[in-house]
Design goal:
Elements: H1 2-23, H2 32-44, H3 48-66, H4 68-87, H5 97-117, H6 125-135, H7 140-154, H8 156-159, H9 161-184
InterPro entries: UPF0750_membrane, YitT
Transmembrane segments: 31-61, 73-91, 97-116, 128-154, 160-182
Subcellular location: Cell membrane
Amino acid sequence: MLARMIALVLGSLLLGIGINGFLVPHQLLDGGIIGIALILHYYFDIPAGLWSAILSIPLIIYAWIKDRKQFHGSVYGMIVTAIFIDVLAPYQFILPIWLSAILGGAICGIAVGLMLRYETSTGGTDLIAYFLAKMTPINIGIIIAFIDVVIVLLGYQTLGLQSVVFSTITILVAGSLASVCYEKF
């Protein structure tokens, strides 16, 4: 239980750092519910953490029905992640876009993989990936990467080609590291 709580807090903190420190300065996307929240944040200037919590509610309800243990980890993960994303919003690093894409993806991927490993999540599409990985032989990192690519492509109209290209790098790095952290540690 203690390890799960540590993974939840550490993963949420890392997500807040990865998103705000590296992705937001260049209007890059992570993918999934957080990616949709970032698109809405860039467009409407409403806090991304708040958006991610609101958008995760249907998935949290699904987890309540299907897997109560995952529900508890996800609802707390959703709340803590949303808080960290919004509290850490002022902290941004000004780096070249390619480096921000790689570092942001690495930090977010490690965060998601760590949280999923301890049966907690942000409550977003990571939760969908968790359930799909349990039902199919498809690797969880591949599922996350596929969902994230779809979300990044949705951001094209709002953010343009440069953001889509570098956001794709971000999600490929994130998906790879999420998979490694989920499977190996």
